[in-house]
Amino acid sequence: MEVPISETEMLDVSFLAHRFGLQYHGMMAGAVILAFGVMQLATRRILPGLLFLVVGCYVSLATSEVHALRQGLLSGDMRIGCYVYESMECRKMLDLPVGDTKSIYKAGERGRGGRPEYADWYAPLRDQLKASVGIAFPSTLPGVALLKSPISLFRLDEMKATLEAQRQELANFRASLPPAATTK
Questions:
Q1: Which of 83, 91, 69 has the alpha carbon at shortest distance from 159?
Q2: Inter-axis angle of helices 156-176 and 65-75, nearest 10
Q3: Cβ contact 77:144 at 8 Å
Q4: What is the pLDDT of residues 77-120, one digit of tens each?
Q5: Where would I find the beta strands (DSSP E) of the chain?
Q6: What is the distance between the alpha carbons of residues 43 and 62, in angstroms, rounded to a whole number?
Q7: How many Å apart are CA 116 and CA 108, to the nearest integer?
Q8: pTM score, two decimals?
Q9: What distance in Å separates the CA atoms of residue 155 and residue 163, rounded to the nearest whole number?
Q10: Alpha carbon separation from 3 to 61, 70, 159, 161, 162 (Å, rounded)
């Protein structure tokens, strides 16, 4: 809560790792488990009830993308704004005119698992970004941010500074575009 992130900022988040997008499904699963725990407590089954309450809280918090973003700010695998502002996907995400920007994907080509392949100009940049981050488990993986959150509490000032720098970078990018070109 020390590092507030708004709903609109969550729309402007870029990910280096695969985004699981379990936010509402995870919260609903956690709520169901919590409700089951409460029912266990109501029938005086204390130990199973407490266990379900703990697991329900964990599932709800472990799938939160806001918590993942806070951890991702520190590890570098998530950010507000774009990693490459020159891409068409970045402009679309930020709801800005695309113009003659290049896509980060090769047209019509699919790689492993049916995912689009990265364009020749973007692949080395992405590899360079991923190498600079160098983490074993991405922040988007459910539970990683929650498990790392106690350590993150000691780095709140760094998290706030990183978040403010990224907000300013995004604002500067939007301001650099011609006024008629912005749609937000």
A1: 69
A2: 90
A3: no
A4: 899 999 999 899 999 999 988 888 899 988 876 766 677 888 89
A5: 13-15, 78-80, 105-110, 116-118
A6: 28
A7: 8
A8: 0.75
A9: 12
A10: 16, 8, 8, 10, 11
Look-up of token digits 């698992």: 113
Query: What does the pLDDT look like over 37-48, one tens digit per residue?
Result: 999 999 999 999
Mapped onto helix, strand or coil, the DSSP state of residue 52 is helix
The token pair at 78 is 């998530």
Q: Which two tokens stand for residue 63?
A: 């799938």
Cα–Cα distance, 26 to 180 (Å, whole number): 40
CA–CA dist 95, 78 (Å, integer): 19
Question: Roughly what angle, to the nearest 10 degrees, separates helices 144-152 and 46-62?
Answer: 80
Helix (H, G, I), strand (E, B) or coil at 127: helix
Q: Cβ(170)–Cβ(184) under 8 Å?
A: no
**The two structure tokens encoding residue 153:** 């509490």
Find tokens 């709800």 and name the residue.
60
- For tokens 């570098």, name the residue: 76
Residue 110, beta-bridge partner list = 116
